[in-house]
Amino acid sequence: MTYNTPIDRPLLNGIRTALGISGVLALILGILILVWPGRTAMVVVAVVAIYAVAAGLVYAGLGIFSAQKGGWARLGHIVLGVLFIVAGIVAFINLPAATAWFGTFIGVLVGIMWIIEGIVSLSTLEWVASRGWTIFYAVLSVIAGVVLLFAPSWGALTLWLLLGISAVILGLVQIIRAFTFGK
Hints:
By secondary structure, this protein is mostly helical. It has helices at residues 9-35, 37-65, 71-93, 95-122, 131-150, 156-180.
């Protein structure tokens, strides 16, 4: 049974825009990973380390300066802040090791997200004329997600390059979906 439920034009344009932007971002990320894999990974880890230090300072500040909170809440914020700060500093001190660990961790998370994204894209089949592209995207997304989920033993570099290749392919397919969605 096929349902061709009409979608409001603003909603359709919003979905197309979201698909297009996510496709372009995935394509750019994939190209950066493939051209400069090590540098791109270290930049990502450095940004996360900066975030950890900044978040740690905020949590510690909340614990120290928040007079309305009870003792345990304040202590919890301070401890959490110190943990974030230490994690950020440790990542900066040993950026290559942190990058390898972070690559494996992100590989698993991205794998889970791609599996879910592939399954969710199938829920749009009733609104798309390009069912083939949507199914292709869903299958490719699920396969890429499963590979990332079950391949951490290949090492962070292999997962990072696989992420780059997958991001380029999925980005291109997502851009195509943006132009064909709702037609």
